Amino acid sequence: xxxxxxxxxxxxxxxxxxxxxxxxxxxxxxxxxxxxxxxxxxxxxxxxxxxxxxxxxxxxxxxxxxxxxxxxxxxxxxxxxxxxxxxxxxxxxxxxxxxxxxxxxxxxxxxxxxxxxxxxxxxxxxxxxxxxxxxxxxxxxxxxxxxxxxxxxxxxxxxxxxxxxxxxxxxxxxxxxxxxxxxxxxxxxxxxxxxxxxxxxxxxxxxxxxxxxxxxxxxxxxxxxxxxxxxxxxxxxxxxxxxxxxxxxxxxxxxxxxxxxxxxxxxxxxxxxxxxxxxxxxxxxxxxxxxxxxxxxxxxxxxxxxxxxxxxxx
Length: 314
Known about the structure:
- The protein is built from 14 helices and no strands.
- By secondary structure, it is mostly helical.
- The protein has one domain (3-313): Na+/H+ antiporter like fold (Up-down Bundle), CATH 1.20.1530.20.
- It is globular and about 60 Å long.
């Protein structure tokens, strides 16, 4: 192999993959030793660190509103495309209803927060986080709207729309990005208000470490089943189908090369942890969903490494 090729692989492993793996491993090790409270960590991420990160990065971002809306459209089309692919597989394989629901949940929604934000911070420190916040916001809202409706479609048909969409309105990320856009549009000098801006900046900077530790704790508490049957299809669709669909859609949208690279890399992220929680709560195949989170997180470094290699050699 050419020396440049081997050097590129070594740099990707050293500078991008290994830092993420080490912090995840620390989270897993700390949970095994001290039995950390996962619910508290998840709440800190969702209600404190993620909104602060979104607000800080959007107000600092040079990504215009038009580009941001196009990224939102791209993310929604990715979710829809993954759903179609999963429905076809479920029909062809004659899966049971709960298996089909689990397959949809574990392929449509990917971990662009705990995994995606640290990945972009390391791989594309200048542009990555600013682009990823739009994906993160869209994915959070879609998970607790489309995902919730999907999970409750047959298990809780008597529930009203207010109950089903309530979790969406409770997502602080939605208000963080709206407030950030408002401040940008009105040229509000938020960064000059040191008493307000500094705490936001402290929280935003803490997200990467806390998110990876949380992911490690989540993996520590996951009891995966054997990797076979529907689970194999879920992993294939998520980790192989995701980047391939992203490659198609970035060309349709005509994104600049740097944004296209960030979006394709983000599409190789593992299954979102929230999908396993939804599957457990609403009688989908929760064992398969939890296993998909576990195995896709471990295996995601293969497509992530390959995509980064292609980007850097290209």
